[in-house]
Request: fold
Amino acid sequence: MTVTERPSAIGQALLAIGDQWTLLILQRAFLLHVRRFADWRDQLGVSESVLANRIKELVAGDLLRPAPYREQGRTRTEYLLTERAIELWPLLVEIWSWERRWAPRRRGLPELTHDVCGNRTDVELGCAGCARAPVTARDTETVRDAATFAQVTVPRHHRRTVRSDGEHDPLSYFPETFELLGDRWSTVILAAAFLGIRRFADFQSELGVAPSVLSNRLRLFTELGVLAVDGPETRPRYRLTEKGLDFYGIFAFVVDWGQRWFTGPPRTDLRVTHRACGQPFRPYLRCRSCGQAISRSEVHFVLPEVIPERRLPLAGTG
Ligand SMILES: [Zn+2]
Ligand SMILES: [Zn+2]
Reply:
């Protein structure tokens, strides 16, 4: 890859995590502290070749770190979350929160408990600069110098991964997020919608996306209720619905994480400002019950319908 083809920081972040299996592997590592190949395979029902491929990519992307261990006199390898991966925890919590608000499902999601106040709770997005919360898409302004934030390169995993048993697995709480985030084109198209792009031709010229891919994704987003179509049939406008606008929290954490951990070519970063304080927007999560900022070590998930309750604290390094 030449320098001019290097994707933006967000593009690199999406290459690293914008894949359904990758997100599931990380989620299991966070929630169940899975670190061994066989445990991911059994947990996810994923083929060994797909799993091996994703773990290899996660190691190459500095998201998993191989660590040898001894078992029955043999040396084996387990994989630990790196610091870069650990920093994804608020993104995973925000995904849980958004799915809880918007994705209908038959089985309950795990519940989040905030250990500081002791309540079963939900989270809301705040601005780390001024501590105000909640912050919504409408409270921030995003500026870009060039359209190159959308340089995501050609996705390596074109095929969609359909998990038919997702509905019955209480931990697979990503069904709709996967549609939006588990595919790199989807995410940049959604990002463009957050930047105010509304018309087919504008998406196309801004992103350089093939018309067939674009119309496919716009149709999917409309079906999911994330975008709504206005205007005449010949010149439709795609606007974010409340559900789509609310996805902003997830988007904000992807941008924040991506731009902190990856470096793109000059002038390809998005600059997000919190209007109320005028500072660069750094998202944080706070507890809806007590209003305090939450930290990774002070929350845990509880699986529903499991007696005795199973506590799932989020993994840390090591
Ligand atoms: Zn602020
Ligand atoms: Zn609390």
About this structure: The first helix runs from residue 9 to 17.
